[in-house]
Write a structure and sequence with these properties.
The chain is of the alpha+beta class and 175 residues long. It has a single domain, classed as Hotdog Thioesterase (Thiol Ester Dehydrase, Chain A, Roll). Helices cover 37% and strands 31% of the residues. The strands form two sheets. A three-stranded antiparallel β-sheet has the order 1-2-4. A three-stranded antiparallel β-sheet has the order 3-6-5. The protein is globular, with a radius of gyration of 18 Å. The termini are far apart.
């Protein structure tokens, strides 16, 4: 499956390889999510939530835990690929609102603009870390919204993170 949403971006060997790896990762695979497009710069990822026997609830619609877990890792992974090893990226928090029961396959678009990436880099350079909250929605092909989520991601410089880790270790050793 190619890009679900209109895009000018293209995939390359690197993004195709990691898309396949990601889709076969057992925890993600069990969620019912599948990455169907990952741009070569990782600024754009399209995801499908497949409604199937494993992802249905008692009513035959999408199980809330599966719906959320399919969305969960995407923004952090994008930041890891875009920013590289000089940064530490962690999930901080999330919210999800189920708008209507998911009774068919639905799709999500995760997009990080150059402005967002620059903002993150600037804030981390200034403060050592930054928390960013980003939205995402599951929609059907007609544009109807089924679930709306926000993800808050911690992004810190490796130096800041390592320094904080050492400080916490010193405090623990002094107790």
């Amino acid at each position: 499956m190619a890009a679900v949403f209109p895009t000018i971006r293209k995939e390359n060997f690197f993004s195709l390889k990691y898309k396949l790896w990601f889709n076969f990762f057992p925890a993600f695979r069990a969620s019912g999510g599948k990455v169907v497009f990952a741009s070569s710069d990782w600024h754009e990822v399209h995801l499908v939530f497949k409604l199937c026997r494993k992802t249905r609830n008692y009513h035959g619609t999408g199980f809330g835990g599966a719906i959320y877990s399919s969305l969960d890792p995407i923004y952090p992974m994008q930041f890891i690929f875009i920013l590289g090893p000089k940064y530490v990226i962690w999930d901080k928090s999330a919210t999800i609102e189920y708008i209507r029961p998911i009774d068919k396959n639905v799709y999500a678009k995760f997009e990080l603009s150059d402005e967002i990436i620059q903002l993150v880099k600037d804030e981390v350079a200034k403060n050592g870390r930054y928390f960013i909250t980003l939205p995402v929605e599951y929609r059907d092909l007609d544009g109807n919204v089924y679930a709306r989520a926000t993800k808050t991601v911690y992004i810190g410089s490796k130096e800041h993170y390592d320094k904080r880790k050492l400080e916490k270790k010193a405090i623990k050793n002094n107790e």
